[in-house]
Amino acid sequence: MTEGENKTLDWVGRGRVQAANARDSLHLRVDAVTTQSRRFKSLIGDFFRTEFKRVRPKWGPYEVTIIIEHTPGSPRHDVDNVAKAVLDALTGVVFHDDSQVEKLLVEKIEGERARVKVRARPILPEAAE
């Protein structure tokens, strides 16, 4: 998930949550960082019900990348707790159950603001030779 890739996406959303589809991937930006699943579920669930209705949960294995941005003055959350909150929020929206996530990368970096960037995409079977 590169910065250039994020700039070329057609983002939808005017509030704290924005999303974009790119090929087989769903990209999500949430201008909040929390370890509380309930807060992420509310933010993300409301967004997908009102502004980004085209996404429906699917079955099959998924790969999820989570980038946690923080500023020098923002609280430092444990990556595992933020990841769990994000995966819980995506359950029922992107995939049916977070047990479908077979590959997970979580990274914490310094950024312009405290926020979470997510890319979720299905893991496609290897092309038959």
Automatic annotation (TrEMBL):
Biological process annotations from GO: DNA recombination; DNA repair
Molecular-function GO terms, alphabetical: magnesium ion binding
InterPro entries: Endonuclease_RusA-like (IPR008822), RusA-like_sf (IPR036614)
Pfam families found in the cross-reference section: RusA
Coiled-coil residue spans: none
Protein name (database record): RusA family crossover junction endodeoxyribonuclease
Domain of life: Bacteria
Lineage: Bacteria, Pseudomonadati, Pseudomonadota, Alphaproteobacteria, Maricaulales
Organism: Marinicauda algicola
